[in-house]
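Board notes (copied after class):
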Amino acid sequence: MITSSLEDYLEYIHNKIAQDKAIKAIDIANRFNVSRSTISEALIRLADLDLIIYEGRRGIKITQKGIEQAKKTIKKHDVLSSFFAKILKIDSALADKNACKIEHVIDDELIEKMNEYINSHE
């Protein structure tokens, strides 16, 4: 099982790599304001789950499985944020903040239903 913190780290790794940017553990530690050792442990766990390839000082690569997991989390975030902002008329910053929290616990089926609802009301 992947924790919400690990999902956040994976999502960040995916986004940086998608922008053709090299990423190192220190970048993640700085972004999430956590210690380097916390990130090292997290990266080892992500590597154990076959979501990334952690090469120490040489950087981090994401696996296909990692890409799929990151995209799944990003989709949840986007659907939630869109639902809150477009359907519930919540301020976009508040919608985004809450989507970040909920994306880790919401069921896929509910996300699909919310996405269908958004699409039918556009």
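Comment from the instructor: The first strand starts at residue 52 and ends at 54. Residues 64-87 form the longest helix (24 residues).
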